[in-house]
């Protein structure tokens, strides 16, 4: 049997997901039992369709070590970031050049402008893998990350035409954000941690207190300027993956910490484009190894609603290897989702 599997998160995963959140602690995956309980409730209702408005759905996937019966990773999809009651908020980053012929002096400034979207993109986020699982030959980070793009393809109508990924910038060891200390703290009177916690429930204070229009980053301390649009060491691998599959830096950053926003047209992301629906036409112990494994997923109306494994799949004959079929509960005639890892 496959040693690892991915399934939809359930409300019963609260304790284990809280442990994973400790490794990230962001707006998407906060280290808060109350927030995690709410997130899992939303996720389960999203998978079941109990949340009727598809734009309000939030999907959480968990990666399971079957031998240890332990959740070791997670990832998320937020169907739409930005609604009337909770806009998508960002800082546009623009380079502006100034020249004086009188002084023969030329300057290049970074200009920041706060923006709001009430009909925003689909966000992929909440990616966490326990450190001790990052070098497994199964490439588990890729597995828990890529499964989101397969799910998007299987339910394309439920997602936006643009995908967004927010990456963490360089932060101090204690979590300090130099950009927030130089900017947000002065306009809100809140510490970075206080503002981060509040923003999980309500972002109104940003719209009410942040300056409108544009302002020059060159007026900020250099330590704050240096993090704008930069990728932190812990997310450089994610950046490489995003660029490889079609994402680009959007010249936008998070207003809290300056972390860069990467975007891509949904249907132009290579993983979405090559994911497909298929039908199992045969099950065999040995499937030709002429290609690498695929992520193979099966959905059902019963918990956990979505189930995926790494498996050998022959698209020409519709043959799925027997061990994966047994693990998924797939039989001849089953409709599956497939994302080749070639």
Automatic annotation (TrEMBL):
Keyword terms: Acyltransferase, Arginine metabolism, Transferase
The answer to keyword Transferase applying to this record is: yes
What InterPro entries does the record tag this protein with?
A: Acyl_CoA_acyltransferase, Arg_succinylTrfase_AstA/AruG
* Keyword match Transmembrane: no
**Name of the protein:** Arginine N-succinyltransferase
> Could you read off the lineage of the organism from its UniProt record?
Bacteria, Pseudomonadati, Myxococcota, Myxococcia, Myxococcales
